Amino acid sequence: MDHATDLIAEGIGLAILGPAGVGKSRVLHEVAARADESSMTVLSIVASASTRSIPFAPFVELLPAGPTQDELMMLTAARATLEQLGQSGGVVLAIDDAHQLDRVSLAFLLSVVSSHAATVVMTSRTGEPMPSDLVDLWTNGVVERIDLDPLDRGDVSSLLGRRLGPITPELEEELWRLTQGNPLVLHEMVEGAVGSSLSRDEHELWSLVGSVVESPRLSDLVLSRLSSLPAPLRGAMDIVAVGSPIPLEVGRLAIGEPLSELEERGLVQIVGRGVGRLLVPGHPLYGEILAASLGDLRRQGVYEVLTTAAIESKASNPDPLRAAMWQRDGGIMLSPEIAIAGSREALSRHDPELAVELLDPLDTADDEVAIGMGRSFRYLQRFAEAEPMLEGRSPFDPGLATEAASIRGQNLAFGLGRVADARAVFETAAGKIDDPDSRARLANERAMVSAVWGDFDDAMAASQAVLDDPVVSDVSRAAAYVTLTVALGMTGRSEEFAALVDDARKVTTRAAMEMPFARDQVEVMWAMALMNVGRFDDAIAVVERAMRERPNPLMAGTLLGTHALGAIEVGRLPLGLDKASEALAVQRRYDPFGLVPQSLGLIALARGQMGDPDGLADLEEIRLPMPAPRLTVWIERGRAWSTAAMGDLDAAARIALDGGRIGIAGEHFSWALSCLHDAVRFGRAEVVIDEIRSIDTSHGADYLAALQDHAEAFIAGDTGELLAVGRRFGEFGCLLLMAEAFARASRLLVESEDEIQAARACAVAKSAAAACGEARTPALEACPDLVSDREVQVAFEAAGGLTSPQIAERRFISVRTVDNHLRSVYRKLGVSGRDELAEVLAPAVDLFGKT
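Structure (tokenized):
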């Protein structure tokens, strides 16, 4: 206990593990009590098998406004509550039976631990399956593990002596045989047997006068103890066992007067605070064993009692999903309103199957029921079933009408591919609604549909209309900025983006609670816009700052992927591969934007440029229902470079052409141009030149313009233009592209028999390529070997200002060898000394600080 208390004081979490009945819950309670005495805020959370099917049920008390339909918003709101509670001295989150947490609650727990929003103390039962993410917390040392083992023989003897006094050796032996040191089993066995199977003999020794139990099953012991309760208490325990955890007000109505006596006897306990207080069994095993022993009729009667109490206490029930599930499990329909409210909660916690199950007994002639079913079917990707539920619905309530149009429009666009019909639904509904923010919501959703389907003109028009409305809320403006910045970033309109990015940041920051993704999404697209103008270092800094200042685990995959893209474009291939792999690992756990294919494409893209085609296998397994530029471009780029790594450059160029065309069709012009430019790098510029020329780069996208100029110089075979565009790539920090442009120029100069200029271009190409690390691209492989790698290294350092002795010391060679290399380089490059050498290698030397 002292060790655990010290850990909590230092802000170190702990996991108390052990089999059922060894005292984990009691230790957790004592640790929490000590933390409470030290002025820390303690939140007691109980997970159970019955709540495992209800997303976020254990933490619902942390949501002041109740659960939302956005999982990230719900997690963010809960963390905000923790942070607010912790301002006066820290928060301890005491979680009993953490292995019973549902997926969403587990994600929240991991977020709390990683962000240090609270100090977590948890129990978990060994001998049962546990989520790997939970196990990782103590195996990786994030929290400290404390194991509670059963008592040894001496401790059992001591405990029995303290409780009973002297006992016969035979009784001690029998109790040890049956309990094997499990404290709860021992406790329940003794308390249930005192006065019946146990009695004092003439020597005042407790002895066994009958069979304690037929077998050492804890369920028999628990039921034996509970069976001695008066009928009102036993009936009340049935309610607690079946319904746990029960909102306290519901429990009071359902149980009545017996509740106080149950609490006094330690058979139930109240956890939580405020409206989030919950009624649970005094020990989890009580509820599990008692609930399993009930017959169907008794269980159904309990559910009816609980549902009726929930209806009466509707205003004070913080979790309507529990009431809806009681109603469902009891096979009764006391309240359609409870079923509808419960279905909304199920969807907000991302359980559409449960939402459908709760609504299924109701009549879909009711608009609210039909819309709820349509929403659930869309969530389940049962788009064809959703459409009949939504078509023709015109609810009188404006909020419900907005929701119906929103759900139907998204179902038509993203589920059924009927984009024109979706836009019509958004526009028609918006024309009938007076509320500005409801109209803005539909306009933003129309913009989102247009953006995803590649109509960025319509996306920008719809988003701008929202931004031009002076009365809409920051939430509506934030949503508009998200779509508008995507459109500007993808179409390469960097100047327009720069003019509005500051306001977009301010608005999305103000709307962070309602739209937690928005600020980071703007930052991602700002990073893309910075890349389009060639400011790659600034772009990567934007992403790194976003991850540092707002460590949102649910946006980590997107930010890491953007970092990977920037690193790959400038030729930092090992870094790009690492970041793409990190992004994929995050997205394997949670992928709200469906970006796993993009990360796989980035991994293959980096590997392919390192001469490794192994990334192709993962891409071949991807099956998209329809081309989506935001994914397809990256899949095709990865496929193209993997194919090039296998030596088939013609096939690689055709793949790049297909990917670029998909990007152009979807108006993802910046990504499309990078994909098409890959074919230029394969030496097949003529295959893609028409498509490259069709892309407008006149909006300040200097990097994209350089890609076009590179293609034109390649087609023309103009060495002067190749060298010029190579220098531009160098100024952007894109050393790999710089190396490839100089390598191509070197090859053309050899063909024109200008060996000195060819050697100069070769030296710059090799210098830039060396800064990229492990690059092995077709253009570099085709570079003439006019200057050796060692000569380039020595020449580069000499041009950078190092003396021969300094170079010799660095390279572990003699000064004489350095001078020999320099004389060879001077001859090959046609220079007379270090000053002229520095001038020839200036394009690479000047960029050394960026490598």
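Residues 488 and 497 are 6 Å apart (CA to CA). The first strand starts at residue 14 and ends at 18.
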